[in-house]
Write a structure and sequence with these properties.
With 161 residues, the protein is an all-alpha fold. Helices cover 43% and strands 0% of the residues. It has a domain of 110 residues. It is globular and about 35 Å long.
């Protein structure tokens, strides 16, 4: 009897996980940027089309993390919250965790264990420093430019401002 319950419990767990992966993406209630998609392209993850109209939640304190890469990602994310609010996250946490934008990854512990979130935040910060708009940064993220980020320079703690 116990083996049967474990067997069926396992089947339910596998089916539930499969459903999460296979369910169509839900667009963010603030708007998702899927306008210029080809029919075979994967939908762009959730993001906000415009800057926030109210205050944004705080990102977690970098001091909560031991890893220098995570500390630096959270440090820089806090500096460009309005930009991250307008960016998609290609780890697809909008599907798995209900995130509405890249900023949501940094209001919890998720980004500390996700290289995609960290690279996109570093990319967003660097592009902001170069004067790019959130829309231009989003175009780069959608092209996959964040994947080319050399994160070795972020493996040493940045000076705090």
């Amino acid at each position: 009897m116990r083996k049967a319950r474990l067997f069926f419990g396992g089947i339910i767990l596998v089916l539930g996980a499969a459903a999460l992966v296979l369910l169509p993406q839900q667009a963010s209630s603030q708007g998702a940027g899927n306008a210029a998609q080809s029919p075979n392209a994967e939908p762009v993850p959730a993001f906000h089309n415009a800057p926030p109209t109210g205050p944004l939640p705080d990102t977690l304190s970098p001091s909560l993390f031991q890893d220098a890469l995570a500390q630096n990602a959270y440090t820089l994310a806090a500096r460009v919250k309005k930009v991250l609010y307008q960016q998609p996250c290609y780890c697809h946490c909008d599907r798995s965790q209900g995130h509405g934008s890249l900023l949501d990854c940094f209001t919890g512990h998720h980004a500390a264990v996700c290289g995609t979130c960290e690279r996109e935040a570093f990319y967003s910060y660097e592009q902001t420093q170069k004067g790019k708009t959130p829309a231009q940064i989003r175009e780069g993220i959608e092209r996959g430019d964040w994947e080319k980020m050399d994160v070795t320079k972020y493996q040493t703690l940045l000076p705090q401002k």
